[in-house]
Amino acid sequence: MRKLGILIGLIAITVLCGAISAGLLNDPVSGLLIKQTSNPDASSFTATPVQAFQLVAWFGFILFNIVGIALTIAAFFWLMNRSLAGVRRATPTGSTSTAITTAQE
Asked: Which of 7, 12, 27, 79 has a 20 to 30 A CA-CA distance from 96?
């Protein structure tokens, strides 16, 4: 029950901080945030259309590459598992032989 209370408290703090940040970005409250410029190139809260496009393109590029890497790794492990399953099927069930054999003479 205590863990649930901590979780609810952390979620409430996160929501409250998000609401404060959103309020500060849209309508600065006097004393909490001083707006220094209205030029979007100099503002850290406002993006120009070119900056927004670059951000979306960068995120798309990163996401595309991460998905590509994940699919490559998944295909590699699938092929390796498939070949191991084939070797296990080819080995007789009663045999306990290994790949390395020693001479018995």
From this structure: 79
Distance between alpha carbon 96 and the CA centroid of its chain, in Å? 44
Are 80 and 87 in contact, with CB atoms under 8 Å apart? no
pTM over 0.70: no
Model pLDDT for residues 36-72, shown as the tens digit of each residue: 666 767 767 677 788 889 989 999 999 999 999 999 9
In a domain, 21, yes or no: yes
CB distance 28 to 34 below 8 Å: yes
Domain shared by 64 and 84, yes or no: yes
Print the domain residue range for 12. 1-34
